[in-house]
Amino acid sequence: MAAAEGVSLNHISRESSDINRLANFYQEILGFERIEAPKLEFGVIWLKHPSSSLSLHLIERNPNYKLPEGPFSAATPGAVNDPEHLARGHHVAFGVTNYESFVQTLKDKGIPIFENRQPDGKTKQLFFFDPDGNGLEVGNWATAHK
């Protein structure tokens, strides 16, 4: 028997040197909304998606960190901002019911994407990066097999 019971995903945290830029991206592209966040000794913005219980916690990057800002999810050097080379295990996935129009919106905004169709021919998914280089996946899982 597992130690934890009633487990659910509560939130995903992302660290950024520009939490406002990142918040605007997630609001504009995926429809997240700002919610009340605690007052901490560093900047935070909390976002929640209106159609689920999922929240994003955007946290101001510690300026003392020595890690560079940027796409850490790229599988190979030089693959920065190339969604085709997004490392398989380094992304967050969202499902949408308006897959085709969502793809067009990303294209209209000039966001590089890599599309993939599963062998079943119905399931579609795409990969892209947020402004800080965090890998994202969007798929049509809810509508693929109706």
From TrEMBL:
<dbReference type="InterPro" id="IPR037523">
    <property type="entry name" value="VOC_core"/>
</dbReference>
<dbReference type="InterPro" id="IPR004360">
    <property type="entry name" value="Glyas_Fos-R_dOase_dom"/>
</dbReference>
<feature type="domain" description="VOC">
    <location>
        <begin position="8"/>
        <end position="141"/>
    </location>
</feature>
<protein>
    <recommendedName>
        <fullName>VOC domain-containing protein</fullName>
    </recommendedName>
</protein>
<dbReference type="InterPro" id="IPR029068">
    <property type="entry name" value="Glyas_Bleomycin-R_OHBP_Dase"/>
</dbReference>
<dbReference type="Pfam" id="PF00903">
    <property type="entry name" value="Glyoxalase"/>
</dbReference>
